[in-house]
């Protein structure tokens, strides 16, 4: 925006400078020409005075010597004519009084009028300046003295003056741009810069950011009010989201505690009840993570220094129960490559695998394949299904809270499962990647750092 505004204002300043430069350039050329003309006119007057007596007596030898000396001194040819336009004395031969410039000047001079000043000299022109003065005695014109003045020096002086003018204009334009245009541009764009900074703050999660609308133009004030309303709506939506998750997790704690008490009594009688008790404990941890997810947008730092966890072994142990679940629903679950690899012990493998396998059974199509591999410094747990998959736009949104694909919105679910998976992976420095595999379907990869000192 600032660049476009400067691109509009700087040419305008340049045009104004050019408009101001035209009369200044004309003044420089006219003034230089006039000074040259006046200085040579004085010399022509002097020759006219010196030619008065020779034209009356006919003794022109002295006048010719003066013309030659003047020519040698000032490099300016000079000649004297009588009233009939005959050359009576000249500093060089070959004078043609019928040349248009000379003839025009002699017409005025021999009629007793002073010739008009010549036109302004410009560097790209050429030619000489003709200066003439009448030789007068008692009001009667006896002839004229004529100087053919070279204009090279005058044009050079005009050129230097124009160059100085150009340099001055460039400095003036630069001073105006630096001293006026840029500060004015910053002042005009300051509200937009404030709005841009506020937008970046909101993007980073500071939803309580607001912009000031005091003393602004009506258009900018309306824009600021619209931004503040949007930021307030986002803040309220985020608060409602957190309150919902917090309330849901709080409401789940009591029935989970009660269920655990009852199942503890049954666990002494049935091994299945002990398995259910393990699931109740895991549900309790899920509720705790939901509370943590609702209270912060950033994953916490991993604490503790427990021994690394073999991801492949943990996945195989959890798949024992899931194979029975899939078999009960007549679904095929394939256990693929299982490469041992140490990861942080804090990684909740059961929770992550439960979410991925549950999603694959609901939204995908069999067979579902689970594998654990290594990729450089990462251990990769992959769950692939053979369903319809997701489009490129939906793939970018995988893991956002409460987001669900348009194809699956009629199916039961909250849209929090993959958000929890992403949060759990981030707790140990990992990430979640969704991609379409060859042959169709969808692959969800949970990539976590490999612990170097782990021994297979």
Automatic annotation (TrEMBL):
Q: Which Gene3D superfamilies match?
A: 1.10.287.130, Histidine kinase-like ATPase, C-terminal domain (3.30.565.10)
A Pfam family hit? HATPase_c
Q: Which reaction does it catalyse?
A: ATP + protein L-histidine = ADP + protein N-phospho-L-histidine
**For this UniProt entry, what is the primary localization, expressed as one broad class?**
membrane
HAMP domain residues are: 186-239
The UniProt entry, under InterPro entries, shows:
HAMP_dom, HATPase_C_sf, HATPase_dom, His_kinase_dom, HisK_dim/P_dom, HisK_dim/P_sf, Sig_transdc_His_kin-like_C, TCS_sensor_his_kinase
User: Does the UniProt entry include the keyword Kinase?
Assistant: yes
Q: Which residues cross the membrane?
A: 161-181
**SUPFAM superfamilies, per the entry:** ATPase domain of HSP90 chaperone/DNA topoisomerase II/histidine kinase (SSF55874), HAMP domain-like (SSF158472), Homodimeric domain of signal transducing histidine kinase (SSF47384)
Can you name this protein? histidine kinase
